[in-house]
Amino acid sequence: MSTELDALYQEIILDHYKNPHHQGLRDPFEAEVHHVNPTCGDEVTLRVHLAESEGTTVVEDVSYDAVGCSISQASASVLTDLVIGKPLDEALAVHQEFLTLMQGKGTVEPDEEVLEDGIAFAGVAKFPARVKCALLSWMAWKDATARAGTTAGTPTEEATHG
Ligand code: ZN
Fold first, then answer.
1. Entry pTM
2. Domain range enclosing 19
3. What is the strand order of the sheet 56-67 is part of?
4. Average pLDDT, stretch 91-112?
5. Distance from the CA of 157 to the center of ligand 1, in angstroms?
C-alpha cells in the first residue's frame, strides 16, 4: 500500500475520531449491548432500533457510547453512517463486507461503493491486534441486532396458534 493511501486512511479515521457521527445513547431501542475489547481496553455500549416499513425491517437508529482508542471510536462512527436508514438485509451485507475486509490481513481490496469511509480500515487489517479494535462496535451491532430481531419482528402470529 502506498504511503499516500495510508496517510489518507489515517486522516479519515482521525476525522471520525474527532467528530464522531450519531454519538450518544438514544431512545427508543429494542436491544442494548455492552462489548469490551480487553486487548486494548476499548468499550462500547450500543443500542439498536429496528422498524417495520412496508414489510421490510429497517435499521431505524443505532446509538452508542464508546471509549477507547481512536480506531475503535472511529469505527463506531463509520458503522452508524453505513447502517442507519438501511434495510436490515443491506446493513447485514455491509457488515459482512467489512468483516471480510478486516479478516483479509490487508489482502482484500475494499469496495468504496459499499464501505464508503470504512475503506480507511483496510490499513488496520494488516495489524491483528488492531483488527479487534476496528471490529468491536460491528460485533456489538450484530449482537444487538440479533437480539432486537427476536424481541421486535418475530413470530407472534405463529406463537398464537400454539
Ligand atoms: Zn483499541
1. 0.90
2. 3-160
3. 31-37, 42-53, 56-67
4. 95
5. 43
